[in-house]
Structure formats: structure tokens, C-alpha cells
Amino acid sequence: MRNEKYQRQKENLKRLGEALFQNLKAHEYMNLTYSGEDSLFIRFNQSKVRQASEVIQGYLTMDFISHLRHTKSTFLITGDLTADLKTALQVLEHCREECKYLPDDPYLVLPQQGENSDEEHYGSLPEIETIAETLLKPAHSHDLVALLTSGTLIRSHMNSKGQFHWFLTDNFYFDYSLYTPSQKAIKAIYAGTHWQDHEYSSHIEKAKKQLKILEKSPKKITPGKYRAYFAPEAVAEFVSRLSWSGLSGGALMQGRSPLKKLYEGRASLSPLFSLEENFHKGLTPRFNEFGDIAPLRLPLITKGKLLSPLINRRTAQEYNLQPNAASEQEQARSPLIHPGHLKEEMALSKLGTGLYISNLHYLNWSDLQHGRLTGMTRYGCFWVENGEIVSPIEDLRFDETLYHFWGDALEGLGDQSVLVPQIFSYGERSLGGAFVPSMLVEDFSFTL
Amino acid sequence: MLNLEKLIGNLRHQADWLGIREVRETSKHLICRNGKFDHCYTLIDHGCVIEALVDGQFAYSATNLLSPQGLQEACDRAVFLAKNTSAWKIFPFHTGCRLKAKGQFKPVHQLSLNPTTAGDVTTLLLDATQKMSISDKIVNCTAQAILAEQEMNLVSSSGSAIHQNLSFVTTNLSATAQEGLETQTRSTGIPSHQGGYELLRKEDLEREAERIGYQALELLKAEQCPTGNYDLILAPDQVYLQVHESIGHPLELDRILGDERNYAGWSFVNLSDFGSLQYGSPLLNVTFDPTVAGEFASYAFDDTGLEAQRQYIIKDGLLVRGLGGVDSQKRAKVPGVACTRASSWNRPPIDRMANLNIEPGETSFLEMVASVEQGIYMTTNSCWSIDDYRRKFQFGCEYGQLIENGKLTKVIKNPNYRGITTPFWNNLKKVGNASTFEILGSPYCGKGEPNQLIRVGHAVPTCLFENIEVFGGSA
Q: Are B365 and B436 in contact (CB under 8 A)?
């Protein structure tokens, strides 16, 4: 049934696109990008339901080009082809009229013919009727705070040159924290495409065991430089911040990237550090807003050297660079840091004495030109002595440059790159995530 | 807009209370760079959310299927969700949380977006990027504007009928200068107001463009901000973010109640602190004021239909009231304000700070500078970070100046400072008078699960803080 519903939606979208393309005049071009979802959100606090909501939405973005002018409009469509075409034709007329008053776009990206794609990942999602009980019973004696997100996400792209891409995935994540009475917490995410009650139960049992370590009194750490182990979830925060504009070709050219020194060869990172875009897991579509298909693997930084930033066709035109099918914002969509040789079971003994950092919070550039980041430790972070956890710590502020922690001070990376899902839902749910290992760093600066 | 009063009467449901909120917003984002067109983007957003109360539990179903059948289906799903989660409800909400309210809000100054708007505004922005480009050392100039028109209707089964009609304008000019290995960016921040085209005056944009162009060049030659403890004067375009992060968020009642612990964070403030915590020095007076004309988050009713009124949050430094709407007030049993708001039709409303202002004091800017022997003046936020309890913060600004013996002297680059919330506000030594007061805001306040970005307003004066840890960039 669900499969049929989405096949109808795909066909309707194709027919809507074809009808619009037939309405184009000479010297007019169009890209259409669709982003839709049926989502369930349930918020929990104190192991109770705080808010439950559902949303059905489908946004179509019309990227319209007339001669050398260009404008873009996003509007809602419903799946009713007649009504949607009427709306879309009104938007098309608005775009035509608007283009009359706009100046030429000097870096226009025209649609191209190219390969099509069609990916569908159906899953089995949790049942709404029993979900609150399923989620809360195993945690009922604990203080659980969480968000359950579940549903179907669709991304599609088509253009007036005949290209069509379609990506559909079911997924869920249960992003949760368990708190001790002394206000310390363990954070975890159970995510996937096929919900399994027993998997969830074992996930939360593991978190409950970890919680016991937090019941000791927290140690106040004096600001200074410390040897530190960062769990993959913490490393993913660094990658997320870097992905925002750090890897963008346009940002590099415009002085907005912390990797300028690396790009210009005035600095290097550790030969242990390699970062790439990797779409092998199929968690996010490879096509971008221009219809370009990214390679399955795109090395960005290899053994500490920047090979290429992310460059879309627009930036490529402006700065005469080689495009690599980057997204419009030139953000990493499926980043992967190559694993190293640090065995996870040896993490504490390799750390010896120092800080075990499970999560980080609220990162921002305190000195962009030198790649310096500030942020906070969060959730289960510990003071470790001689390879043994001594106690949790009071949250610490750090201020450190990536040229240090991914450079000279990087002692090792974990032997597995694990998925840390992208869970943002501003306006719409995000897709994908980062594959990152843990890391061990010397002399990391904590300041407050 | 839909005839919601008729539609709600036709919905078949078994809810104890039902509300429909319809939001239609058209926004236009225009960007020019280096004297050239860059981007023209329009978002036409229109949908409804049904809020159903069943057995003490609220649930929401949002849809862009706006036919009677689409709304009936959304109604059925909202009731179904409320029924299926009510056994696990955190609090027994009741119809008293959604009292009947009627009214309208439509400020005088409105936008009227039409096909010529993009061209007209683009001409202004192109001109601004050319004015910024005062030297070949300026390598990137960006000018952007976001214009938005929003209509909101809210009706309920208890007879509420509210209509609000708002217009928003945000601008940003930014110039990046490079020389040798040095790169510096100077911008106008993101001034954000309610109003119409009167907020986009050519002469204002040109003046600001030239100023930031010159100041970007000044920063290329500037010394690094010194490290140490100094008296610190913050301009309104930094004070507003300090208020937002270290007063606004920690005082949101839903954070104090723990709703945000899994995402945005908790708060160092306890419910018992209202009426007793000396949050700042006696010079600190903070109001929640949705009535300020032109401020970015002004409105007459919040998204539960509660009438919005000006209230003191901090009076003479003492914490007196929380930032929480009717649902949080019932749960927390402390006084709050009308601030239950949603980012759009597709998210449920939660506690949001709206307009949160520092009342002006009595000191002029020159008097403030004259009172400082050794200090730093910082302006325009560039970096912000604060912990999940809203205690330990670090902020950076684009442009600084040394204050030596009561006078502004050298320009300094990469000025940063850090501190802890209540000691910092208790170190507030002077509050600027009305001549230093600016109405500012931001369209980018993020919070909530699912995530929501919402508009906030902050009207603030220049402020002087004593003995603050400041530092510069890397060598």
C-alpha cells in the first residue's frame, strides 16, 4: 500500500515536471527539486510524553532561467496533479515576470542531460499505537528525555533536459538522554530503517549501565592543556562545524574558510588524517540541486593534504575551478574520516591519564583564519587516570585550533568509522550522517 | 487565507478542545556579491496545524492539504495521536490552558511583495557592494536582504478568532579584506525589524557599506586584541546576543522544566530562583515587550491565543518572571509571559523568548568611555558559544578598540571575551542611555525537537562591564 502510494507520487511528480517543461519558451530552462516527508515526532521528558506531532509536507523548488536571468521559488504541492499544476504555472508566471526586473546572472548554471537515478529504501517503522509504551517501559524508572522521529523522506530532482532523480527512504531515530539525579547524562541514538523492539531494549540497557559511572561526584578540572580521547560523537561535532563552510570552494576563495592555510600550503594536518565524501552507504542522495551526481568517493583531505574542496558548478564558473558535483551550499553531505589503528577496547589504556570526551556542544569559530574552535564538553565526560575512569567531570570550555588537534597533536584514530546520524529537523528532516572514528589528542586546550 | 471559523465548525472530532492555526508566509531572499547578482529566492509557505486536546494531552497534526478533507484527516490524526499518548502525558492539561481570545494585529508599515520587488531591492544591494569595494584589498563584498510577509489565523472550538499580519526585513552587508596572510571581515551584523520598504533606504545602505569597507581595511593593519582582565564596553550589536544567550535561553521555563535537555540544553536557573536570584547588578532591567513598534518579534497574541503584554523579567537585577507560556506556567507554577510560539505551521508551539530588551540607563557613550582607564570596546558579534546550562560562555566580535585613560585609541582585531553568566551580569557597571539604545533582532534562533528557527527581537543599549577576561586571536 505504502509502496503504491509513493509510486503514484513519483509518477505525478514526473508528469507535473513534464507539463511544466512543455510550457517553457525558447531560452527558458528549469530545474525542479522536490523535498517531502511524512513524519511523526514524539518528545519525551522525565520518561513521559511532552508533545506529539505529525507533519505531511511536500516542497517543490522551481529554479527558472530565462536568457541570462535566473530566479528560484519554493512552494508546496499536494500530490493532486491538477491542483499542483495550476499552482506551479502561477509560480512560473511569477518567475518570468520577476526575471524581467533582475540583472543578468554572471555565473548561470544551465541544466544538463545526464544519467538518471532511482533509489528506494523501504523499512519497517515503529507502530504509533504502542510506541509510547514500547519506548518508555524499559526506561520507566529513569529520567529519560528524548525525541522519536519516524517516517518517510523523499528527495527528487528533474530538469528541462530530461534528467530525473528520485530518492526515498524510510527511517527512524530515537535520540535520547538518560539523566542521573545529580543532573549528569548519557546520550545515545538508536537509528535505522527497520525498528526492532529487542534492539531498542538492548540499546537502552547499555545506556542504563553507562549511567552508573556518572553517579560519582564530578571532578572540577582546572583549565589547561590535557591529553584527551574523543568518542566518535564528539569527533562528528568537529566535522559538522567544518562541513558548514570549511570545505566549500566558494568559502575558500572568499576568505570564509578555516582551511585557507591548508589550501595555500602554509599549514598541513597530520598524515594520519584523511577525510572524504563517501556515498557508498546510500544514506543520502548523490544528486545535487543542479542534477549533478557526486562520485561514490571523493577524497577531500588525504594524509593531511587538502586535495580538493567541495566545488559546485556555480563556484567552478566564478573561480575557474574544477567542479565535483558539490551541493549548492558546498557542505559535506556524507563525510567519512578514515579510521586508524586505535582499538576501541584499548581507548582508556591508550589515553592513560586525561579526559574522555563523549560529546561536544555549541561549537563556533573563535579565530576562523587559524581554524580555532571553541565549544563545550557535554553529557558523559570523564577524568581518567592510568587507564581507569576516576569520575565524571564538570563541563569544560575548550578553545583549540584544528591545525593542532588534527595536526601535530593527533596521536591516533579509532579503528572503526562509525555512523553518527544527521538528526537536524529545521524546516525539514535531514538525511545521512558522518562516518567518523574516535581520536586521541595530546595537549588539548581547555579554557574555562 | 481559509475561512477557519467555518471549517472548524464542520470538523467531526471527539477532542475536548480543538484549535486550527493557519500560517501563510512569502519570503524573498536576495543576495548580490562584488557588484553582481548572486541569488533571488522566494519561499511561498502555506499550511495548517490542528491542535487537539484529548484526555489532558495536546497533540498536533500539520498539513499542507488545505481542503476540508485534508483538514479532517489532519484533525483525525491529531486526535488519534493525543489519545494514544495520553496515558503517558507529562501533565494533565485542560481547556483552561486555551481560553477564548479574539483580536487582530496589523502594524502600519507593511511590505507588499510583487514581481518588481526583487529587481528594486537588487539594485540597492548591487550599489551597496560597489560602495564597500573601496580598495583592491577588499576581496569579497556581499549584500543581502530577506523580506517576509506573514499572515496567521488562529481559531478554536472555544471561540477564539485571531488574525495577525506581519512584515519582516533583515539585511546584512559584509566586506572581507585580505593582505598578505591576513584576512579580516567586517559586517553590519543582521539588523532585523518589522516594517516595510522604509527599512531599505539607499542612503543608509551606502553609508553602512562605506563604513564597513573602511573598517575591514583598518582591521588588516590592527594589532591583536590583548589578553587579560579589562573593563569591557559592548556595543548594542553584541549586547543583544549576550542577552539572548545568557538571559533569554536560561529563563525559558520549558528549559528549566527539562524539555530541552536532549537538544538545546537545561538551565542553571531553578524554579525557586524566581523572586530571589540576583541575576545582575541593580542597573540591569530586562523586559519581555512584544509591544515595541518595529521590533522583530512584536505581536498581540502568542500561538496559544494568550494576549501579549510587557512584563519585567529582571527588575533592578532581581529575577522576577520566567519566559514561559501558559502550558509551562501551569506546569512550573511560576509567572510567565505570552511566548508560546511555533516557527511556522509545521511545528508545535513551544516557549520562545520573542522581544527581550534591556531598558536604557543614564550614561552616554562618551561618559561611559571617559569612565574607563584601561579597557576594550567591542562591536558586532562574530562568534558565540555557551554551555547547555547557559553558564560558561565565550563570544567574539569583529571590531575592537582599546580604551586608554578615558579615550578610544587603537583599533584591535579578533576581540574575544569569556565569562560565567551571573558573575558577568553582576559586573554590569554602566548602562547606556537612550542615545545608545538600538532595536535589533535575529531570524535565526534555533531550539526545540523537532528543530525550529524563529524570529527574536532585542532592543538594548551600550553596556559597560568591569573586570572581564578578554583575549585575541592566534598569533
A: yes
Q: Where are the alpha helices (DSSP H) in A160-310?
A: 197-213, 232-245, 249-253, 260-263
Nearest to B67 by CA among B144, B2, B152, B12: B2
pLDDT at A140: 78
Domains contained in chain B, CATH given = 4-221 (3.30.2290.10), 224-471 (no CATH)
B59 and A53: CB-CB below 8 Å?
Answer: yes
pLDDT of residue B181: 87
Q: Which residues contact A167 (CB under 8 A, 6 or more apart)?
A: A117, A119, A120, A154, A155, A156, A284, A285, A287
- B371 pLDDT higher than 70: yes
Yes or no: say if B352 and B456 are a contact pair by the CB < 8 Å rule.
Answer: yes
For testing contact with chain A, the best of B44, B181, B444 (most A CBs within 10 A): B44
* Cβ separation A39–B450 shorter than 8 A: yes
Closest CA to B52 of B23, B67, B72: B72
d(CA B1, CA B154): 11
Q: Which residues contact B261 (CB under 8 A, 6 or more apart)?
A: A45, A145, A177, A179, A185, B388
- Best mutation target, A9, A48, A51, to test chain B (most B CBs within 10 A): A51
Beta pairing, strands A418-421 & A433-436: antiparallel
Are A53 and B348 a contacting pair at CB < 8 A?
yes
Q: What ipTM does this complex have?
A: 0.96
Contact B90 A49 (CB under 8 A): yes
Q: Where are the beta strands (DSSP E) in A67-201?
A: 69-76, 117-121, 143-159, 164-179, 185-192
Q: How many CB atoms lie within 10 A of CB A296?
A: 12
Give the pLDDT mean for B429-455.
Answer: 98
Q: Which residues of chain A have pLDDT under 70?
A: 1
The whole-number average pLDDT for the span B344-361 is 98
Q: Which three cell numbers stand for residue A322?
A: 574544477
**Residue B81 identity (one-letter amino acid):** L
Peptide linkage before B450 cis (omega within 30 of 0): yes
Which tens digits make up the pLDDT trace of A39-90? Answer: 999 999 999 999 999 999 999 999 999 999 999 999 999 999 999 999 999 9
pLDDT higher than 80, residue B56: yes
If one compares A182 and B294, the residue with the highest pLDDT of the two is B294
DSSP state of A393: B
pLDDT of residue A440: 98
3-state class (DSSP) for residue B105: strand
Interface of A with B in 305-344 (CB under 8 A): none
Residue A31 distance to chain B (closest CA, Å)? 14
Please provide residue B243's backbone torsions phi and psi, each rounded to the nearest 5 degrees. Answer: -65, -50
Q: Pick B392's closest partner by Cβ from A54, A72, A397.
A: A397
CB A17 within 8 A of CB A32: yes
- Full-model pTM: 0.96
**Alpha carbon distance A136, A126 (integer Å):** 13
Min distance A254 CA to chain B CA atoms (Å): 6
**DSSP 3-state of A228:** strand
Q: Starting at the edge strand that comes first in sequence, how are the strands of the sheet with B356-358 ordered?
A: B318-319, B311-315, B286-288, B356-358
Q: Is A427 on the interface with B (CB under 8 A)?
A: yes
Q: Over chain B, what is the mean pLDDT?
A: 97
Q: Looking at beta carbons, which residues of chain B come within 8 Å of A367?
A: 396, 414, 416, 473-474
Residues 251-280 of A with CB under 8 A from B: 253-256, 260, 266
What residues in B contact A72, CB-CB < 8 Å? 39-42
The answer to whether the beta carbons of residues A412 and A419 sit under 8 Å apart is no
Closest to B286 (Cα-Cα) out of B190, B197, B189, B354: B354
* Shortest CA distance from A315: residue in chain B: B38
